[in-house]
Amino acid sequence: NLAEKFSKDIGTTAELRATYKSADVRTATDTAASKKAYYDTFSKALATAKKNDMGNEIVVIADYFSSEESDAAALTKLSNTYATLTKSLKSMNAPSSAAALHLELLNESDNMAAIFKNIAQIDDDSIIGLVAIAQFEINEPKMEKTLADFLAYFKSNAIFN
Known about the structure:
Elements: H1 2-9, E1 26-28, H2 32-51, H3 57-65, H4 73-91, E2 93-95, H5 99-119, H6 126-156
């Protein structure tokens, strides 16, 4: 609540704007083979991100704030993880049926990279850090929903059961 109040008081919204537009998504034909190739590439990118703490954001944030001696290395690592995921997503060829969903994830990943970069600055600029926490609270559920939508997309296209 405090972070959200700071966000409103300084005139900065906790909502982040989309950096990428539909023209930034590389699309492929909508064939079974392209969907399978996309799934394989997509799965590898997500597996790499998960190995680098994607999915453990709450734990990383809690660990950081639980000790006065914490450094921002884990937060910076998460920022880099999301930046790498964004770069991977930008280079993928998404089937046209997944283009809109791919764009959502591309923007959410980019936003998370910025959010963790800003949370890591909380010791140097507490307002930027607090606003980033409010942004995390808004964007994290969006990221989870987008990933769940991908699961549904892959299931509905018989990529896996």
